[in-house]
Specification:
single chain; 278 residues; alpha+beta; 6 helices
């Protein structure tokens, strides 16, 4: 991605994340210390709650939001028309809250909170001024999200029908890669013109990868976020010093990863790019 060309997300590509936290100040202290994030409050003075945009070097990563519910990370998937796709979610057996505009007059975009038929929560994001995450695949940035399920094939059927996703033959650690045909072409034509050259030797369809599908030993199904770090072990040690918990580590061909839990209970992953690490 170049600084001059914003990243845009066609329908069906995960495009935004936010952490819903009972104590946004505590979350800011933890994640700011771990990833070096900057924070900007976007709710007007006097409005209850908090929605803090997270950025690195001025490029947006996601957000920290206040919530009375247990802490969790939410993944939003880009759509062209939030209302239309929300209706389709319901048709396919999921549930959808009423669509809501974000920002003054809906200038930022339009979102919908959804739950798939097996109980995994996710969001829809119809971008306007807020195009989606801009600092990605670099230290402190979002890498991707994966759907974890005790019955991944059954869980995936919903998203296959909703967005046209396909499961790739590429496996990384415990996860199979999920691809949206044509996404690599979109990146090559917009924000990442060198993607084909940079991925020479990668498996066929690798440029189309938008997320991952993983088998979980226990439920409930959920969406899980991953962030890039320069060094997995250093990041895990910092997380522990800041009050987080290391739940486990693993090595794949492309990455070294650690599963972490923040002090308020939200789980996430940090990944270090390390080709051939297994």
């Amino acid at each position: 991605m170049t600084d001059q060309t914003p990243r845009t997300y066609p329908q069906g590509v995960p495009s935004w994340i936010d952490a819903r936290q009972p104590d946004p100040d505590a979350a800011q202290a933890f994640y700011g210390g771990l990833f070096g994030w900057d924070f900007e409050e976007r709710l007007p003075p006097g409005v209850p709650g908090s929605y803090r945009i997270v950025s690195v070097d001025g490029r947006e990563v996601g957000a920290i939001a206040s919530s009375e519910d247990p802490a969790t990370w939410t993944t939003y998937i880009a759509v062209d028309d939030a209302d239309t796709v929300a209706a389709r979610v319901v048709e396919l057996g999921g549930s959808a809250a009423a669509p809501e505009d974000a920002g003054p007059g809906g200038a930022a975009g339009r979102s919908v909170d959804c739950v798939d038929p097996r109980g995994a929560a996710f969001g829809l994001w119809q971008a306007r001024a807020r195009l989606g995450a801009q600092h990605v695949n670099a230290p402190g940035g979002w890498v991707f999200s994966d759907l974890r399920s005790t019955e991944p094939e059954q869980a995936f059927s919903f998203y296959e029908q909703l967005f046209g996703w396909q499961v790739s033959d590429v496996q990384e650690g415990p996860s199979a890669m999920v691809r949206l045909p044509g996404y690599g072409d979109h990146l090559a034509a917009t924000s990442d013109p060198d993607i084909r050259e940079r991925q020479v030797g990668a498996p066929e369809g690798f440029a189309d990868v938008v997320g991952a599908l993983a088998r979980s030993d226990s439920g409930p199904d959920d969406w899980h976020v991953s962030f890039s770090v320069a060094d997995r072990d250093d990041a895990a040690a910092v997380a522990e010093r800041l009050g987080g918990t290391v739940l486990g580590t693993w090595e794949g061909f492309w990455t070294r990863a650690a599963e972490l839990r923040d002090p308020q209970g939200a789980t996430f992953r940090v990944t270090q790019f390390a080709r051939g690490s297994d």
